[in-house]
Specification:
single chain, about 230 residues, mainly alpha, 9 helices, 2 strands
Length: about 230
């Protein structure tokens, strides 16, 4: 998923940087992290920093790996999630050359915006429509949210690469399917990891999830008085 330097044209680099900068500004203003959430934010950032480093090469020199956007976004909210993924990508680019600096806008757009905001939106819409109550329905929705977010982020990366010919070797017909197919497999792992982490917190530390802008919408995490008033 990390796009290196020299793979994108200015026609892709400039728009993705503009969109990303806008989201950075909004996220800095709207991200609300409580003192209780700071340790889990640090833990998740470190965890997925390591997870992203375990990747394998696919089309034209790009890579496939876990994103972590769904996990971080659902637990901390999309704005804090965007900033967390940004920190990961900046450190990886500067310290390990994993992802280019000129492609940072595109990489954050794919992994820190699409990969974070899409799962949060899917979960919120599903919860509002179906009033998720059972753990089965909650975990199924979490899995689907993470899977779809992963696939859409991969398709976005493939599109950016495919639109960057002749700088990038392959066109849309190769780049998009290659990214989507590989990340459809990783998307399953993404969904499972997200379910495991949130399920563990739901069982052991529900107080952390009660502070989440997304998961706190679940009836099982609301105070009894609030839940009764909404029924």
């Amino acid at each position: 998923m990390h796009i290196p330097d020299g793979f994108l044209t200015l026609y892709v680099i400039i728009p993705t940087f503009i969109i990303t900068i806008i989201f950075w500004g909004i996220s800095i203003k709207k991200a609300k992290i409580t003192e209780q959430q700071v340790p889990i934010m640090g833990l998740l950032t470190a965890l997925f920093f390591a997870a992203m480093m375990m990747n394998y090469p696919i089309v034209g020199g790009t890579t496939a790996h876990l994103l972590g956007g769904a996990t971080i976004g659902l637990i901390l909210g999309p704005f804090a999630g965007c900033l967390s993924i940004t920190v990961i990508l900046v450190l990886q680019a500067f310290l390990f050359g994993d992802g280019g600096l000129t492609a940072l806008g595109a990489n954050v757009f794919n992994m820190g915006i699409i990969g974070v905001f899409i799962p949060c939106i899917i979960f919120l819409v599903a919860n509002k429509a179906f009033k998720l109550k059972s753990t089965t329905s909650i975990f199924a929705t979490i899995f689907i949210s993470a899977f779809v977010g992963d696939i859409l982020a991969a398709i976005s990366a493939g599109t950016e690469l495919g639109l960057s010919q002749p700088v990038f070797t392959y066109g849309l017909s190769v780049a998009v399917p290659a990214m989507a197919i590989n990340h459809s497999v990783i998307g399953v792992a993404e969904g499972i990891v997200t379910v495991i982490i949130i399920g563990t917190l739901l069982k052991l530390r529900p107080d952390i999830l009660q502070k989440s802008p997304i998961l706190s919408k679940l009836s099982m995490l609301k105070p009894k008085e609030t839940a009764m008033e909404e029924q």
